[in-house]
């Protein structure tokens, strides 16, 4: 490796420019130390978070070495290495179960490594770089009732920074639609197995389009051609290839068995066999690699089919290929970045051993060391009393090497951040000799805090609109409208113009109990069935860091609220006047308690849906709870055993049903006693007070306390649902 005199320190900030005649570009997350061409230290100010959001993503070079992952003492990946540069397309191939998806999860930072390193631009993978990575899952997960354009618009509003205007974000959407050739289908709904929408190839491109909105520097795609015909697959890979070349992006895809046309689009190939590297290098050299070990490809035979047949062969064949792959690593043409000791102390020693004496400049003071092999340790711990310092080492040839130190005042230790040198080619070469322990310490300081792309208010507003837009076709479907209107008319006719007499009390109570239980079940199971499909989309978006969970949860509650109360309100508007309205106050109070009971039931449905991953389990639990709620509601059973009365306190229907009776029988004309009344009060009075009506069903609570208990139900189940999603159902 040829090293020039042009060395500089890259620290922690995103983008800082210094005068070109004296200084170099510095990257840092906080005030750091830069080294100019003369080797002098220069203090550099910080950029604000808002200024950093305007900066474009730099091209990323991906290097992963020695990646090893084990699950239950079984190797999934073992010593897998590779490199892909900006503008290149790396294909990860291999038979099913060889570890392709696991490798992609590792590169995205979603799976913990047992050993090995992953570097972007020679820096270890950290939270700051995760912002520049997009991961396109194999499954196409969308809200089925949103159109393609609506899906992209909401993604842009959520994932592009607030510093961009609405018009600018929509320009991004138009550009991505044009780049991926989605103009003709942009107003088509996404669809699912029940509703016809986009085709398979269009969904794949839509999945990629959602991730391209953030202008990522590194794209990871898991089986993007699965389920597509040859033409659609070729069209998709051709778009990715052009995007990588024209936009200077780094692209990694996993493919199972590509066609010959697609295979020759790839720049690099990583072939996996039993979780190990069977081949890594240029695509156009893989045929020669197999020919050298006696496996010759027949003329006019797809090389992709041939090499997959070999790695799926006998154990002897697999061992032969893996042995040849290990020998290929020793070849001079093998990328030097993938050598094992490139980032360790050996390179420091190799560099310093070329000089007999080395001078160290620490804050203006020159020190001399005579033992180059101790240089790495000495330089790390030098100047440990300053919070952040720059250390320069000068060789006799005026070659300057710079170090950034970060001092932790709590444990009085120094952490070595990174060492950067500039090669003749203009690339930055990073010397990262940290251990895994020191890397974790520095990364917490280096990554500072997680910066969301948009503020809480923007996320809440956009998600509320999207939840309303997505849930409206489902909750206010034509069938639900017909069902609600028909049910309202039937209930009104069944209990039409009931008289205010003792004989009609049971019928009036029947309408109240039926109304509360029906809309409880409707809202509860509606929330329960909608949650599993929506959960997949939310998990995908949470993994990409699109928004806060709190913003989503609050937006879902608010966005769906108008839809939740619309149908019960229509039912009440139709059926109750047919019973006979006695006052406007009673009409609206009964409506308020009916809607409150409906919202509480929906909250319980959200909570159970969040807790249970298995739909059958959640339906069983919901059935038991809702049936128990009806049994102890106070209408079906009045003589409840004393040892079972505590169940009545858990029935949401019980409180709403009691409140509706209090309101209905307290206002308007009195309930007249029958000739042979079962109420004792009728012996001395001609009408029945509400307290005596409620006493038949057992002890009754006042109106305000019933309302307060319902509000507590609402609050507790909403909070519990959030806690489950936040701490127990976090996406892996």
Quick synopsis:
This protein is of the alpha+beta class. The chain is built from 24 helices and 20 strands.
Give the topology, please.
Elements: E1 32-35, E2 41-44, H1 49-53, E3 62-71, E4 74-84, E5 89-93, H2 100-107, E6 115-120, E7 123-124, H3 127-130, E8 133-136, H4 148-159, H5 166-179, H6 200-212, E9 218-222, H7 230-247, E10 250-255, H8 260-263, E11 268-273, E12 276-282, H9 286-292, H10 303-311, H11 315-328, H12 345-352, E13 358-362, E14 365-369, H13 375-381, E15 388-394, E16 400-408, E17 413-422, E18 428-431, H14 436-446, H15 456-475, H16 478-494, H17 505-543, H18 549-559, H19 561-579, H20 584-611, H21 615-631, H22 652-666, E19 671-672, E20 687-688, H23 690-695, H24 703-728
Parallel strand pairs: 5-10, 5-11, 8-9, 9-10
Antiparallel strand pairs: 1-2, 3-4, 3-6, 6-7, 11-12, 13-14, 13-15, 15-16, 16-17, 17-18, 19-20
Helix pairs in contact: 4-5, 15-18, 16-19, 17-19, 17-20, 17-21, 17-22, 19-20, 20-21, 20-22, 20-24, 22-24
Distance between the termini: 41 Å
Continuous helix count: 24
Report strand order across the widest sheet. 8-9-10-5-11-12
Which percent band covers the strand fraction? 15-25%
- Whole-angstrom Rg: 34 Å
Main beta-sheet strand count, sense and barrel state: 6 strands, mixed
Description:
The structure is a single chain. The strands form five sheets. The protein has a six-stranded mixed β-sheet, with helices on both faces. Strands 14-13-15-16-17-18 form a six-stranded antiparallel β-sheet. 45% of the residues lie in helices and 16% in strands. With 732 residues, it is an alpha+beta fold. Mean pLDDT is 76; it is low at 1-55 and 341-449. The chain is elongated.
């Amino acid at each position: 490796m040829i090293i020039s005199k042009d060395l500089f320190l890259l620290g922690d900030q995103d983008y800082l420019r210094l005068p070109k005649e004296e200084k170099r570009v510095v990257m840092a997350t906080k005030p750091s130390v830069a080294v100019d061409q003369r080797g002098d230290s220069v203090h550099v100010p910080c950029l604000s978070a808002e200024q950093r959001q305007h900066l474009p993503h730099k091209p990323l070079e991906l290097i992963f070495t020695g990646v090893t992952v084990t699950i239950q003492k079984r190797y999934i990946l073992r010593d897998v290495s590779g490199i892909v540069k900006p503008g290149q397309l790396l294909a990860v191939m291999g038979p099913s179960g060889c570890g392709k998806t696991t490798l992609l999860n590792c590169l995205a930072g979603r799976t913990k490594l047992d050993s090995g390193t992953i570097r972007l631009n020679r820096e270890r993978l950290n939270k700051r770089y995760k912002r520049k990575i997009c991961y396109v899952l194999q499954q196409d997960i969308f809200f089925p009732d949103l159109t393609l354009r609506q899906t992209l618009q909401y993604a842009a509003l959520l994932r592009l920074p607030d510093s961009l205007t609405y018009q600018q974000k929509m320009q991004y959407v138009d550009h991505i639609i044009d780049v991926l050739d989605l103009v003709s289908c942009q107003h088509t709904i996404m669809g699912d197995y029940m509703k016809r929408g986009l085709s398979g190839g269009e969904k794949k491109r839509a999945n990629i389009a959602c991730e391209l909105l953030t202008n990522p520097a590194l794209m990871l795609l898991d089986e993007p051609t699965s389920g597509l015909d040859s033409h659609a697959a070729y069209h998709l890979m051709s778009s990715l290839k052009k995007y990588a070349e024209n936009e200077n992006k780094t692209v990694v895809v996993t493919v199972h068995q590509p066609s010959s046309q697609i295979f020759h689009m790839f720049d690099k190939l990583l072939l996996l066999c039993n979780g190990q590297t069977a081949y890594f290098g240029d695509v156009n050299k893989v045929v020669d690699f197999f020919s050298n070990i006696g496996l010759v490809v027949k003329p006019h035979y797809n090389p992709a089919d041939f090499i997959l047949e070999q790695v799926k062969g006998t154990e002897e064949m697999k061992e032969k290929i893996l042995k040849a792959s290990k020998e290929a690593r020793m070849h001079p043409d093998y990328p030097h970045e993938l050598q094992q000791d490139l980032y360790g102390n050996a390179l420091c020693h190799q560099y310093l051993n070329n000089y007999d004496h080395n001078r160290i400049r620490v804050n203006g003071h020159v020190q001399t060391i005579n033992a180059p092999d101790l240089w790495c340790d000495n330089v790390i711990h030098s100047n440990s009393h300053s919070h952040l310092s720059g250390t320069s080492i000068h060789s006799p040839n005026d070659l300057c090497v710079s170090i950034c130190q970060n001092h932790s005042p709590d444990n009085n230790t120094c952490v070595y951040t990174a060492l950067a040198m500039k090669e003749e080619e203009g690339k930055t070469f990073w010397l990262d000799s940290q251990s895994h322990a020191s890397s974790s310490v520095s990364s917490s300081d280096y990554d500072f805090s997680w910066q969301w792309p948009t503020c809480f208010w923007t996320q809440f507003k956009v998600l509320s609109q999207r939840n309303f837009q997505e849930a409206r076709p489902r909750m206010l479907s034509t069938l639900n409208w017909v069902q609600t209107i028909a049910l309202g008319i039937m209930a009104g006719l069944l209990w039409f113009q009931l008289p205010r007499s003792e004989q009609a009390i049971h019928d009036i109570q029947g309408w109240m109990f039926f109304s509360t239980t029906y809309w409880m079940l409707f809202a509860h199971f509606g929330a329960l069935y909608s949650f599993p499909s929506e959960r997949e989309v939310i998990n995908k978006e949470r993994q990409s860091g699109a928004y806060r969970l709190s913003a989503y949860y609050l937006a879902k509650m608010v966005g769906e609220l108008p839809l939740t109360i619309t149908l019960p309100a229509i039912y009440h508007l139709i059926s109750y006047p047919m019973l006979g309205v006695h006052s406007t106050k009673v009409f609206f109070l009964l409506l308020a308690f009916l809607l409150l009971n409906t919202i509480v039931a929906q909250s319980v449905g959200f909570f159970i849906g969040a807790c249970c991953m298995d739909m059958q389990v959640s339906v069983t639990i919901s059935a038991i709870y809702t049936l128990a709620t009806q049994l102890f509601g106070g209408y079906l059973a009045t003589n409840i055993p004393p040892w079972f009365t505590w169940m009545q306190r858990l029935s949401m229907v019980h409180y709403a049903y009691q409140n509706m009776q209090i309101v209905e029988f307290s206002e308007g004309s009195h309930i007249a006693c029958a000739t042979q009344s079962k109420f004792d009060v009728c012996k001395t009075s001609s009408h029945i007070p509400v307290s005596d009506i409620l006493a038949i069903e057992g002890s009754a609570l006042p109106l305000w306390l019933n309302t307060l208990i319902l509000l507590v139900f609402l609050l507790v189940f909403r909070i519990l649902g959030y806690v489950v999603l936040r701490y127990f159902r976090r996406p892996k």
